[in-house]
Design goal:
Shape: globular
Number of strands: 7
Strand content: 5-15%
Largest sheet: 5 strands, parallel
Structural class: alpha/beta
């Protein structure tokens, strides 16, 4: 039987923000790491069905592994078989700055509601009815969305169970990662306001929220004020949750993998254990609690087609530079690593132009073919440049399944047969947009500056309209 409401909802959700989308893989905690944090969150999830704390806030500095922790929790909940545990994943949403479908608050509650329709017994029919009655709900204010798509359907489900003298469903868990990566701070606060109002006005709704973000001032202020303060349990990923041993374990395991994957060249150039405890201790100290530093080092050392020993020597050499600028405090090791990787290619102007395009093409992941066409450079040169950046970039489908007509038309202009590229972590975007840190690799935000490169984009588009054999 057709479900027009669910079908309509499915057409406008952000599939790229789901925990099992291609963008989320292989994001997860390394086996054996972050045990204390994971156990604390799971204890909260497994607590009394009606705990006083209906919200759990995980927050910390950039690059400390918040997203990996929430992805690990989400995967564990999603793998739980119905009826075997009180744990139930209602839905998840992973915000990501720079990707339009993942940074717009308007997509949050419709995407969560669609997952609830699939995961929470009874919610499918209730949400379908809501959408059939008013298909424009996803375009309304956030308060209206959460009321019509989540609160009222839950009330109908709970009311039906009470009338049948059935037990109420166990609390369902909603996971929201990277709230600070929602495009506007006012929208971030509006999301928290809508969630808080739900718990204040409808305390019997069997749902809880696990939220992760950076320690931004406006978010801290929202969580520190009642009534949200009174219903929130929190963990700050600081020195009270030591991560150095976890990072050391990550280095040991990953370097062992790199060695085994390159036995033909490693046997004659390195002795086991490689690279030795002193080197791993040094890298662990330089990580300063930032997992993103460790991940970037491993990706760089294990880059395909490169000698791991020479790559590691380059990392160690780059880390000897001393930070003298105030902006380097707390970021010096990561900044030095980023600078070293970006400086490896002889044409650094080309590297900056590529990074500028990757940063500013927000509606979809731009492909190497499109970059070559826009810069009027041979595609093989672009591919070689991107290869030198492989430890900083991730490969994604160029067009997402939920692309709307506008982005599909726009993407067709550039060609959509190959893969697109994006930054592996927001810390790289922060680095590149801060001129005091990235210096010659500094790039501009698309909404605050229109450099020559982007003006060329417009000229290329106009030229393609008048050229029959356009390269798109």
């Amino acid at each position: 039987m057709r479900e027009p409401g669910i079908e309509a909802l499915g057409r406008i959700i952000s599939t790229q923000a789901l925990h099992d989308s291609p963008e989320r893989y292989p994001l997860q905690c390394h086996p054996g790491t972050r045990k204390r944090v994971l156990e604390s969150i799971l204890r909260w999830i497994d607590a009394d069905p009606s705990p006083s704390c209906r919200v759990f806030w995980l927050y910390g500095r950039p690059g400390v592994g918040k997203s990996a922790i929430l992805k690990t929790i989400t995967d564990e909940l999603a793998a739980t078989r119905p009826g075997t545990s009180r744990r139930r994943l209602a839905g998840s949403f992973f915000f990501r700055r720079g990707l339009s479908s993942c940074e717009n608050a308007i997509h949050l509650f419709p995407t969560l509601a669609y997952q609830m329709a699939l995961n929470v017994p009874g919610m499918r029919s209730a949400i379908n009815q809501a959408m059939v009655f008013d298909v424009t709900i996803p375009s309304k204010a956030l308060e209206v969305q959460i009321s019509k798509l989540i609160i009222e359907p839950f009330q109908r489900v709970c009311g039906a169970r009470q009338s049948e003298n059935s037990t109420l469903p166990p609390a369902s868990i909603v996971i929201i990662d990277g709230l600070d990566e929602c495009a506007e701070s006012c929208h971030q606060k509006a999301i928290l306001t809508a969630i808080t109002a739900m718990f204040v006005n409808h305390p019997d709704i069997p749902v809880r929220f696990l939220i992760a973000s950076r320690y931004e001032h406006h978010l801290r202020s929202a969580f520190d004020r009642p009534p949200l303060r009174d219903v929130t349990q929190r963990i700050y990923l600081d020195d009270s949750f030591p991560v150095h041993e976890d990072i050391r374990l990550f280095f040991e395991d990953k370097f062992a993998e790199i060695y085994n994957e390159n036995l033909d060249i490693m046997k004659s150039s390195a002795r086991l254990p490689w690279p030795g405890r002193m080197t791993i201790d040094m890298l662990t100290a330089r990580a300063a609690g930032q997992f993103i530093y460790a991940v970037t080092v491993v990706r760089f050392v294990g880059a395909e087609g490169c000698h791991p020993c020479k790559q590691l020597d380059n990392v160690l050499a780059s880390s000897k530079a001393t930070a003298t600028r105030r902006a380097d405090v707390g970021f010096s090791a990561l900044d030095n690593l980023y600078m070293h990787i970006l400086s490896a290619h002889p044409n650094q102007t080309l590297i900056r132009d590529i990074l500028q395009l990757v940063r500013n093409m927000k509606c979809f992941y731009i492909s190497p073919r499109s970059i070559a066409a826009l810069l009027e450079i041979d595609e093989s040169a672009i591919s070689l440049a991107i290869r030198s950046l492989s430890s900083l970039l991730a490969i994604y489908p160029t067009i997402s399944e939920e692309s709307n007509e506008k982005t599909t038309r726009f993407a067709a202009l550039y060609g959509r047969t190959d893969k697109g590229i994006g930054f592996i972590h927001r810390s790289l975007t922060d680095f590149l947009e801060d001129a005091s840190r990235s210096r010659r690799f500094h790039i501009f935000r698309s909404d605050s500056h229109v450099p020559t490169l982007l003006r060329n984009l417009a000229l290329r588009c106009l030229r393609s309209m008048t050229t029959r054999d356009a390269p798109w």
